[in-house]
Amino acid sequence: MPKPSREGMEPTQRRRWRRRSCSPLVSAFLRDPGSGRVYKRGKLIGKGAFSRCYKLTDMSTSAVFALKVVPRGGGGAGRLHPRGKVEREIALHSRLRHRNIVAFHGHFADHDHVYMVLEYCSRQSLAHVLEARRTLTEPEVRYYLRGLVSGLRYLHQQRIVHRDLKLSNFFLNKNMEVKIGDLGLATRVGPGGRCHRVLCGTPNFLAPEVVSRNGHSCQSDIWALGCIMYTVLTGVPPFVAAPLSEMYQNIRAGHYPEPAHLSPNARRLIARLLAPNPAERPSLDHLLQDDFFTQGFTPDRLPPHSCHSPPIFTIPQPLSRLFRKVGCLLLTQCRPPCPFTPREASDPGEGGLDPDSMEAGSEASLSVRGVLSPEDPIHLLAQGTLRSGPAGPGGSPRQEVEAAIRNLRLCLDSGPLAMQEPPGEQWPVLWAPKWVDYSSKYGFGYQLSDGGSGVLLRDGTHLALCPTGGQVYYAPDRGKLETFALRDVPSLLGAKLAILRLFASYLQQRLREERGLLTPAQPAGPGLCLLRFLVSEQASLLLFSDGTVQVSCSQDQPQFVLSDGGKELVLTIWKQGQPGTSYPLGVLQSHGCIPATRQHLRHAIRMLQSI
User: Fold this and answer.
1) Is a pLDDT exceeding 60 seen at residue 307?
2) Closest Cα partner for 441 from 521, 539, 327?
3) Which of 167, 384, 568, 607 fits 585 for a cystine, CB–CB 3.0-4.6 Å?
4) Average pLDDT for residues 80-101, to the nearest whole number?
5) Mean pLDDT calculated for residue range 531-542
6) What number is the average pLDDT over the span 521-530?
7) What is residue 158's predicted lDDT score, i.e. its pLDDT?
8) Is 68 annotated as a binding residue?
9) pLDDT at 23 (0 to 100)
C-alpha cells in the first residue's frame, strides 16, 4: 500500500522534514511542564509521514500510554502556533470521548517536539493483523466494522471528517476493541457539509469527489470504509496505484476487480459503499441494517490470537453441513411449520441458520392484539412436547397439563377482585427471560435466569447446558436423564449440541443487552427440562418439569411465572423495565388479583385446555 500523500507538502519539503525527523532524538525521560508528570519513553511502536509513536510509562503511577511525537516546524519552545496542523489535531482530538476513538490524555512541547499522550493499544493496528493474516473472515469484518461505524458516526456528529481512514489508523487494545486514531488530517466540515478542496489522504482510499478536487465530506469517509472492507476480505485494495492517473480514473468510475469469491451480501455492500455518486452511498445510521450485518453472524468479541490466526467461533462456520446433518437426525414431533416461525435466513445456497435472523420470544415474536379477550378462540401457532418414554418416574403429559391448570385456577379463584396490585416482594425466581422458536426446523431454545440454557428439539428430546457450561444434560424422553461433561458428549449428540450452543450464544447476547430482565435465581436442578411449549397469537406458555408455568405476552405486556415457592405457590409478575414482583398464594387469597392479571391467567388456562 503506497505511503500517504500529505496535505500541503511538496516533495522537497518532505525530504527536508525527513532529515529533520532523524534528529534530534527524543529524550529517554520527558517532563510535562503543565502537570509536572515525568514519563519514561519506551520502544518505538509506530511511525508515519509526520510523526513517530513510542510506548510511554508514567513514572509515578506506572500507567502505560502511547506517545505521539511530532517535530516542531521551528520557533522554539514558546506557545504553540494556533493555526498549525499539529495544533488543529490537538484541538480536535482533545475534545473527543468515545470507546471507538483512541483516547487523548494530554499534550506538551519542548524546543524540538510536540508530544501527545494517547491511549495505548497493545494489539497494534489492523494493518499488522492483515499483514499476518492476509485476509479476514466475514464475521471478523462485521465485528470490526461495527466498532468503526460507531466511532465514525460519533466523529461525524461532531462535524469532523477523518480524511485518512486506513488500516494502519485503526488500533486494537488488549480487549480487541477497535479504535480510530491518527487525526492528523481530520478537520471540521463547513456549512455545506464539505471542507477545503485539498487532495490529501491515502491515494488508494480517496473518494471520486476528492480525486476530482471537490473536497472531502462525510460520504468520503464512507467510501474509505468500502475500500477497507474490500481490502480485509480480499487482501488487496480495490484500487491500486499503477499508474496513479489510471487508478484515479478507476476511482472516478467506481471500477474495481469483482471479488467473486465473497458472499453476495458482502459484494453488494461493497458496491453500495463504493458508489461513485456520494448520495448513493449508505449513511452510517443505515449501514448496520444492511443484509451483510443482519443476515450474518457477528461475534461479541474476538480472541487475541485472531491477530495472527483465524478464530474458531462458538457457532461453527459455515453452518450448512451441520444443519444438513441435523435434518437427518431430528424427526418430526411438532406440528407443521406455521406463520409464527421466524424467517430463516441463510447463506446463498445453504440451509444454515443465522442467529441475527432469529426472533427472541420475549422481544418481538408475539403480535400485539390488544387486550386479551375471553371470547377470542385459541389458535396455537406452534407447540412442542418432550416425548414420552417407557414407564418411569414422572407423570404422563396429560397429568402435567392438568396439574398446571389446577395451579393457575388456584391463583385465579383466590380472594376478591382487586382494584390495585396486592403487596408483593422480590424473590429469587427461576424463569426463562429469553426464548426463541425455531421448532419447525430445529427446536425451541431458551435461556434461564440462572445462566443455564436448554432446547426442546424437534424430535421431542431435550438438551440442557448448566450455567458454567461444563455439564450437559440430555433427556431422550420423560423417563431418562443422561449427564455428560462437555468434552465427553457422544458424537451422536454433536449436531444437537451445536443447535443448543447456537441458541445459547444468541440468547446470551440478547440478555446482555437487556440486563434489567435478569434477577437473582435459585440454580436449576440437573433434571430441569422444558416439558412443553405453546404459542398463540397473544402469548407463549412454557411448562417446566418442576411444575413452573411461564406465560410471556407481547413486548409491552407483563410476563407471569407461577412456581413452587417451597411452602406454597408463588406468582411472579414482570412488567416492562421493572424488576419482578412475587405474590405468594396466601397474599393472593387475602387480596385477590387485578383484572389484567386474571385475564392473562384465564388465557393461559385456555391455551392448556386447547391441546
Assistant:
1) yes
2) 327
3) 568
4) 84
5) 88
6) 77
7) 94
8) yes
9) 47
Mean of pLDDT over the chain: 81
Q: How many CB atoms lie within 10 A of CB 325?
A: 13
For residue 76, the surrounding DSSP H or E stretch is none
Q: Which of 88, 119, 150 is at the close of a domain?
A: 119
Are 235 and 134 in contact by the 8 Å Cβ rule? The answer is yes
| Alpha-carbon distances of 6 from 162, 164, 250, 547, 588, rounded to whole Å | 13, 10, 21, 70, 75
Q: What is the pLDDT, as a whole number, of residue 347?
A: 29
Check whether residue 454 and residue 600 sit in a common domain.
Answer: yes
Contacts 24+ apart (CB under 8 A), 79-85: 80/109, 80/114, 85/7, 85/50, 85/184
**β-sheet bridge partners, residue 463:** 455, 474
Question: At CA 56, angle to CA 51 and CA 62, rounded to 5?
Answer: 165
Per-residue pLDDT, 287: 93
Exactly one of 32, 58, 112, 164 is catalytic; which is it? Answer: 164
Of the listed ranges 152-166, 218-232, 397-411, the one predicted with least confidence = 397-411
Dihedral sign (CA 70, 72, 77, 83): negative
Whether residue 516 is predicted with pLDDT greater than 70 in this model: the reply is no
Q: Treating both helix axes as pointing N-terminal to C-terminal, what angle do 397-412 and 595-609 enclose, rounded to 10 degrees? A: 160
Tell me, yes or no, whether 580 lies in a domain: yes
pLDDT at residue 472 greater than cutoff 90: yes
List the end-to-end C-alpha distance of the chain, in Å, as a whole number: 66
Answer for the pair 183, 89: CB distance below 8 angstroms, yes or no.
yes
Interval 12-32 mean pLDDT? 65
Give me the residue label for grid cell 432469529. 358
pLDDT band at 264 (very low <50, low <70, confident <90, very high): very high
Cβ atoms of residues 52 and 46 within 8 Å: yes
**Distances from the Cα of 188 to the Cα of 5, 127, 202, 216, 217, angstroms:** 20, 26, 19, 10, 9
377 and 512 co-located in one domain: yes
Is the confidence at residue 76, as pLDDT, over 70?
no
251 neighbors 212 (Cβ within 8 angstroms) = no
Task: Report how many domains make up the chain.
Answer: 3
> DSSP of 10-61, one letter per residue?
-HHHHHHHHHHHTSSPPPSEEE-TTT--EEEEEEEEEE-SS-EEEEEEETTT
Is residue 102 in some structural domain?
yes
Q: Is 164 a catalytic residue?
A: yes
The x, y and z cell numbers of residue 284, run together, are 452510517
Give the DSSP H/E element, type plus range, for residue 603. Answer: helix 595-609
Q: What CA–CA distance (Å, rounded) separates 36 from 529? A: 63
Of 436, 610, 462, nearest in space to 529 by CA: 462
Residues 161 and 109 reside in one and the same domain: no
- Estimate the crossing angle of helix 138-157 against helix 218-234, to 10 degrees: 170
* Same-domain status, 86 and 131: no
Instruction: Print the domain residue range for 428.
Output: 361-609
Amino acid at 18: R
The percent of residues above 70 in pLDDT, for the chain, comes to: 79
